[in-house]
Structures are given as C-alpha cells and as structure tokens.
Amino acid sequence: MKTGLVMEGGAMRGMFTCGVIDTFLQNNITFDGAIGVSAGAAFGCNLKSRQQGRALRYNKRFCKDRRYCSVSSFFKTGDIFNADFCYRQLPDILDPFDVETFRANPMDFWCVATDVLTGKPVYHQCTTGNGNDYQWFRASASMPLVSNVVEVDGYKLLDGGMADSIPLEYFESLGYDRIVVILTQPDTYVKSPNKFLPLVKLRMKEFPQMINALATRHIMYNHQKEYVMQKEKEGSIVVIKPEESLHTNPLPRNADELQRVYNLGVEQAQQKLKQVIDFLHQE
Fold first, then answer.
1. Phi and psi (nearest 5°) for 155?
2. Nearest-angstrom CA–CA distance, 44 and 200
3. Long-range CB contacts (within 8 A, 24+) of 246-253
4. Any idea of the CA torsion for 238, 268, 256, 129, to the nearest 10 degrees?
5. How far apart are CA 76 and CA 73, in angstroms?
6. φ, ψ for residue 113 (rounded to 5)?
C-alpha cells in the first residue's frame, strides 16, 4: 500500500487547502507522497516541512504589501506575485521555510508545471526545499497573463493547472493506491471556456501549444473532476472539498477573508478526519 495526497490549485482558494493540511499536521496524519498544483504546490510544500500555520501566517501578514502581490509589481517585473519577494525574501528571511525538515521528511513531494512549448504537464520531484525547488514552486503557481515564463532545468514553464489541474491519474500511475484528494471547488462546479482567451493569444502568441492548452483547459478540468467524483463514489479515494463555492478573491487582499477560507478547510478536514484515518490505515 502506498498512500498519497493530491492538492488542486486555485490561487487564494488554496487557503482552504492550508486549513486541511494544517489539520493533518495537528493530528499527525502522514502520507508516503504528495503532489500539488499551483497554490497546491506553493502552499502544500509546508506539509513536508511540517510548518503548521505558516502559509496562513505569511499570507495574512503580507496580503496588502505591494512587495508581495500587486499591480505595480506586475508592471515593474511582469509578475503580479513578485518573484524575488515570494521566492527569496519570504522563504529565506521574512518567514523562513524549514529546509532541513523538508529534506529529512521521508514523504516524497511533487509539483506540476506546464511546458509552454508543448502545452503538456511536467512533473518535478522536489528534494532540496530551496533554490531550484523554489523555481519549480514558482513555475507551478505562475498564472498566465500576469506572470513571466519561468525557465528552470531547461524548461519554459507556467501554471501547472493549465495542463493537469487534478493530477490524480498521474499519482495513480506512480503506484499510489490509497489517495486523499483536496479540491478547492464544490461538486457543483463546472469550468467554462476561458473568457480571456483573446488576451492570452496576444500575450502568448509565440507559444501556440500553450494557447491550445488554455483553450481546452475547461474540457480537461471537467473530465478530471468527473474522474475524481467517480473514484470517490467507488470508495477508492477520499475527497475533501468545499460544500459550496468559496467566493473569494483569487489574489490576497483581506486577512479576514483568508482566515475565513482557511477555517472552512479546517472544518471540512475535521468532519472527514476519522474517515481519512480509517482509509489510510485499513488493511
């Protein structure tokens, strides 16, 4: 048996995921491996470093700080989430990421990014917890239109959610057979075609395969969502998700709002706690 955790992205809906993984940490729930997409990677890495509350803490602290996320950062650097602040100053100085614990934790941690040249997902196992891994976290969470293409390990990358929003099937292919999935959208959610596609075509005209991935993302996402719901119905996975839409701003703007979404994650995790524990330890 190989236990795994799959974490969907969703920008600040990721605070819901933070509430779930902090509840896991509080109750000593562990996995053999975890995989995160976009915010699921940028925030989910704190599960491997065992830093309960860290992602909520720094998002509330810096949610109104222009150095963290702002239109001015976008116009100055090309990234609405300032890369130097988010992936150097924050983890190295302002709210240090526990690199030693990350490396010592035997749980494997993966993140997903999208290759802008092919429009296909790229999966990276994160082992260092700094430097190169930070760039993969950044790539996984770099939203098209408001982010620069991230170059790392010979790839040109953007947000992993464009090519593999819910990497359950990928984790199954690695041999994980007892999987918990954290979604940031309710069962009723159906993704629509990208309304910003004309802008995408202008901004990313040199990457036609990425444009195609964005144009068909809703089809991929809805297929994956159906797959997750079917596996949940069969009882082969456990899913933790909001009961209804979180109705939150995709960018960090209000500390109380971030706390509200986080609390919903805690609430849902607590409701599912016994089921998760029984599921992960059943013979």
1. -100, 160
2. 28
3. 246/13, 246/16, 246/184, 246/185, 248/12, 248/13, 248/15, 249/12, 250/10, 250/11, 250/12, 250/13, 251/11, 251/12, 251/69, 251/80, 252/12, 252/59, 252/62, 252/63, 252/68, 252/69, 253/63, 253/64
4. -30
5. 5
6. -130, 170
Tell me the pLDDT of the chain averaged across its residues: 97
pLDDT in tens, 46-80: 999 999 999 999 999 999 999 999 999 999 999 99
Exposed/middle/buried for residue 2 (C-beta within 10 Å: 0-12, 13-18, 19+) = middle
For 35-75, give the DSSP string: EEETHHHHTTHHHHTT-TTHHHHHHHHHTT-TTTB-HHHHH
The dihedrals phi and psi of 269, each to the nearest 5 degrees, come to -65, -40
Angle at 40 between CA 39 and CA 43, to 5 degrees: 70
Q: Compute the C-alpha angle 202/208/209, nearest 5°.
A: 135
Q: Residue 26 is which amino acid?
A: Q
pLDDT digits (tens, 9 = 90+) for 92-103: 999 999 999 999
Residue 65's alpha-carbon distances to 86, 186, 250, in angstroms, are 11, 30, 16
Instruction: Identify whether the C-beta of residue 217 lies closer than 8 Å to the C-beta of residue 37.
Output: no
Say how far apart CA 144 and CA 210 lie, in whole Å. 10
Mean pLDDT, to the nearest integer, of 187-192? 97
pTM attached to this predicted model: 0.97
Distance CA 18, CA 261 (A): 9
Q: Please give the C-alpha separations between residue 60 and each of 55, 97, 128, 198, 255, in angstroms, as whole numbers.
A: 9, 16, 26, 34, 5
